[in-house]
Amino acid sequence: MSYEVTGKTVLVTGANRGIGRAIVEGAIQRGAKKVYAAVRKLDSADSLVEEFGDLVVPVQLDLESKESIKAVAKTATDVDMVVNNAGVLELASPLSEHAARSLEHEMKVNVFGLIHMAQAFAPVLKANGGGAFVQLNSVGSIKAFSEGATYAASKAASYSITQSLREVLASQGTRVVSVHPGPIATDMTSNSSMADIAEPPSLVSDSTWESLLEEQFLAFPGSMAKQMGEAYRSFAENVIDAKTPAA
């Protein structure tokens, strides 16, 4: 079912900068009634409040803290849509000395954080009619890059969880979208080898809202992502979108 953000209440994690900020701006431009800007430090959302006033409500949320996620879910009981954008990237190859430590941190935020967000907000979305749950993944979830091997591994796990959430949350009328950007011009990618080809965060915001309107599970924002998405399309249609055979 097509999903319109107009008149809806949205929660965005990592809302203070980069892709998260672009998603907040996109939601408001498209008529969102309210946007909860979920950030680790409340004052980091001050500029959003200055720009959009009462449309933006900052809330403290840390994906490494299950308790902070649960606390926000108890406060933001009017949420119609969750965009879980926040994540971490640590540059590490499989042979890097810090690879295991980096993977442990990325899994804690990018995977366990996603699970805790889904568990906390699924009941809220259900109570409000279903709504939508959007997860920011990465092209790294389907194609590993050596300098970001541990990040890609965490995003592959996140993508797997997102696929399962799509199936589980369908029963309560919640739409799930998995967004897979290529290199995007954010602080996260500024020190990577792909910084020179990074594209604007607004591409991710636009692709997210278009995917909801067009009833698409997968979104591939950016030039590299679109190319990979086209190559991946047949597999997605025949495997990812296929119904699981009955046991």
From TrEMBL:
This is Oxidoreductase. SUPFAM superfamilies: NAD(P)-binding Rossmann-fold domains. Its EC number is 1.-.-.-. Transmembrane segments: none annotated. It comes from the Bacteria. Gene3D superfamilies: NAD(P)-binding Rossmann-like Domain. GO terms for molecular function: oxidoreductase activity. Coiled coil: none annotated. It comes from Allorhodopirellula heiligendammensis. Belongs to the short-chain dehydrogenases/reductases (SDR) family. NCBIfam families: PRK08264.1-6. Pfam families: adh_short. It is an enzyme of class 1 (oxidoreductase). Residues 8-187 form the Ketoreductase domain. Keywords: Oxidoreductase.
